[in-house]
Amino acid sequence: MCGLAILIAGGLTVIFYRQIAENLANGVSSYDRVKLFGVIGCVIGLLIMANLHTLVLSLLTDLIFRR
Prior knowledge:
By secondary structure, the chain is an all-alpha fold. The chain contains 4 helices and no strands. Helix 2 (about 15-25) crosses helix 3.
């Protein structure tokens, strides 16, 4: 359920990126940045829904701590 909520929030961010950028960010200069954050949110939501986030986190910890 948490992955679905993150996916919906990311999708809404991608759909309404202009209004979000104008009201919360610096306006036209941050349209692409807000859209990028929405796409990243969608990818993270999909990873959590597919239960692959544990695989990604274990790979990151193996790279950082060199097990």
